[in-house]
Amino acid sequence: MGSRGLGEVGGLLLGSVGARLGTEAACPVVVVRGPGTPRGPVVVGIAGHIAGHGESEALLAFAFPYAARTANALTLAHVSADGSADPSRSALTERTLALWRERLPAVTIVQESLTGHPGKALMRAASQASLLVVGSHHRHELSALMHGSVSQAVLHHAACPVAIIQQTS
């Protein structure tokens, strides 16, 4: 879906359809905020030591085929606010990646460790991306706003299209 660029406050006051779908839809939602970089990487936000296997798998199940179709690299951006964003400590195991490498061997995988506010760190990592893929745990826009949702932050401010994958918890 497209975005009218209302920004966080305008979208909140006017009831942004993209923001609402991003928190409530049962299927992946892609909001196109800007042109992105067609040959840029597909950046996947992995929440460091917090993400569980199922959460990471849902993000990868969306991002890997997209990267394969567009012949773009896949950047796994491991994020933590406290500086512990170490890919080797993530729930995203080497075994999980090996399965995806076997399924889609043409996809180049890059792993990055990011620190700082997760939303801001992901937006920096995706500044030249073709797509940013993140998960959402919130089932309502108000809950997402009150709990500082990373998916809502990137949805409102990322310079590239954003895919929000609803996570079950």
UniProtKB/TrEMBL annotation:
UspA domain ranges (all copies) = 1-33, 52-165
Q: Which residues cross the membrane?
A: none
Instruction: List, alphabetically, the InterPro entries matched.
Output: Rossmann-like_a/b/a_fold, Universal_stress_UspA, UspA
- Quick one: signal sequence residues? none
Q: Name one Pfam family in it.
A: Usp
What family does the Swiss-Prot or TrEMBL record give for this protein? Belongs to the universal stress protein A family.
* PANTHER family hit by this protein: ADENINE NUCLEOTIDE ALPHA HYDROLASES-LIKE SUPERFAMILY PROTEIN (PTHR46553)
Q: What is this protein called?
A: Universal stress protein
Biological source species: Nonomuraea cypriaca
What phylogenetic lineage does the species belong to?
Answer: Bacteria, Bacillati, Actinomycetota, Actinomycetes, Streptosporangiales
